[in-house]
Amino acid sequence: MCQLLGMNCNTPTDVAFSFTGFAQRGGRTDEHADGWGIAFFEGGDDKGLRHFVDHQPASESPVAELIRRYPIQSRNVIAHIRKATQGRVALENCHPFVRELWGRYWVFAHNGHLEDFHPRLHAAFQPVGSTDSERAFCWLMQELAKSHAGVPDIAELTLTLRELAPRIAGHGTFNFMLSNGQALWAHASTRLHYLERRHPFAHAQLSDEDLSINFAEHTQPTDRVAVVVTAPLTVNEDWKPFEAGELKVFVDGVSAQ
C-alpha cells in the first residue's frame, strides 16, 4: 500500500529533512514506485497552496529532488508516495488531492484499499482520476459541506470527521491525512505513527538515508513540530503508534485532543 507523511507546526518550518528520508521509500528502500505528491500551505492565513505531483518514483523524480533542495517553509504539509491498487499510474491519480470548500483549499491523501465504495456524489465534488482515494475525499468534502452551514471551528470539524471516517473505513483500509491550512487531521485504520518535537531539541537520524540533523541548531525554544507518518522516519526518536480507528487533530505542532 501507499505511505503518508504529514507535518503541522506553530511556525513555518522546512520539511526537507523528513521528506528526504520519506522519498527514498518511493522505489529505493521500499516498493512505493507508482507516483508521489506533496502540498504546502503558505501565505496569509495559510490560504495559499503549493502542490506538486509526479507519476515517476519519488526516489528518481527530478521534481522530488527540487523539493529536497528548495527549503519551502509551511505550517501544514501533506506528502504521499503511491503503490497503485486502484487506478492506473498517471498524474490524475497521484495524491495528495486538492479541493476548495468554504473559501479554503483542502488537501487529502490516503493509504489503503476500499472495496465497493461508490457513493453518490453531486456536481460540486467529482473525482478527476479513477482511485478509491479521490472518491473518498470527494465524499468527505460533500458530507462536510452538508453538515455545516458555514465555516465550523476545528473542534466541530473534528467531531464531524469522527462520525464520517468509520463510514468509509467499513469498506476497507482507510488511513488518511487531511488539512485546510489551519490544522492536520490524521486517521488510522491500520498503521500511523506520530511524534511532537519541542524544546529541548536534539539530533535525529533518518532510517532510510544516511543523514542526521541537530534540530537545536535550526529552531527556537518556542517551536513546536508534529510529524505523522506511516512508518517511523528516524531511528532515535520516540514515535508513538495510533490506535486502530483513531483520529487525531494537530494544531500549532501539538495534538489538540
Order of helices and strands: EHEEHEEEHHEEEEEEEEE
What do the pLDDT scores average to? 88
Separation, N- and C-terminal Cα atoms: 28 Å
Cα shape: globular
Helix count equals 4
CATH class bucket: Alpha Beta
Radius of gyration, taken over Cα atoms and rounded to an integer in Å: 17 Å
| Lateral strand order in the biggest sheet | 3-2-4-1-12-9-13
Tally of domains = 1
User: What class would the helix/strand composition place it in?
Assistant: alpha+beta
Write structural notes for this entry.
By secondary structure, the protein is α+β, with helices and mostly antiparallel strands. 19% of the residues lie in helices and 33% in strands. It has a single domain (3-255), classed as Aminohydrolase, N-terminal nucleophile (Ntn) domain (Glutamine Phosphoribosylpyrophosphate, subunit 1, domain 1, 4-Layer Sandwich). The chain contains four helices and 15 strands. Strands 3-2-4-1-12-9-13 form a seven-stranded antiparallel sheet, with helices on one face. The chain has a six-stranded antiparallel sheet with strand order 5-6-7-8-14-15. Strand 7 and strand 8 (184-188) form a beta hairpin. The radius of gyration is 17 Å and the shape is globular. The model has no long low-confidence stretch (mean pLDDT 88).
